Protein: Methylenetetrahydrofolate reductase (NADPH)
Organism: Actibacterium naphthalenivorans
Amino acid sequence: MALLQFNSRATRRATETAQIEAFLKGFSIEVMPRTAEKIEDFRALLPERTRVYIAHIDGTPIEDMVATAKRLAGDGFCVMPHVPARLVADAPMLADWIARYQGEAGVDQALLLAGGLAAPRGAFENSMQLLETGLFDKAGFRRLHVAGHPEGSRDIDPDGSDRNVMQALRWKQAFAERTDAEMAIATQFCFEAAPVIAWAERLRAEGIRLPIHIGVAGPAKLQTLIRFAVSCGVGPSLKVLQKRAKDVTRLVVPFEPTDFIAELAAQKARHPAFNIEAVHFFPLGGIRASANWAVEHAARPADQT
């Protein structure tokens, strides 16, 4: 009997490992110019063709963004810079940014989002307005990702509903249908699988078929994750961290996303049509920790061109 139980546990572990490997295939990761400067060689950390998002934080010069994009592209990575609408003064500035990314770094994809500012600096308030300029299409940017919020966003829906969030996603689905843009939803990081699964199923039921790239916080100290989660407006899944924090013995051990990813991977294995297409890592505990964890657990990455 003991041997049968051991074999059963071993089989379950092997199944879970295979599901996680498949689910993590083609993962992406995020960096900022100032953190990228601290990495001597990204090729020693990440598989070739990994998609690397470059976060554009308020105060970061466009020159630093473009230089980081050029470096990463030169190292063989798929580069996807953030374009925060509220940091863009006007259409000429947007056209200049696009031209720099394209001309100096060979970039042809971007993540369009509102940005973290409470109010716009210029003509644009949200990613839909950036798309409506037609500048990305004119420049040949073929892949455009947009932001998603599985647990809602108080910045977008102050009343706690998701009315505006859902309306925006329906607009973006319609935009993808009337253009030849390859679009996907890159989400905020979460910590609990059940709400994410319910959200993804709801999108599909409402006709929003854009592939989802689910945000995952890489390994980090629990205190670090809680701080980022609160500042970024993470919703109900924050309770997963708060529950763990009650056990003081676990505060010194880095929190890893294994359970979260395993549940989503199992859902994908049971339901191949499940619309989460890829995993996107937020390296809140450092780029090395997230990259090492992802590479250790993932199958060979898919081509992300």
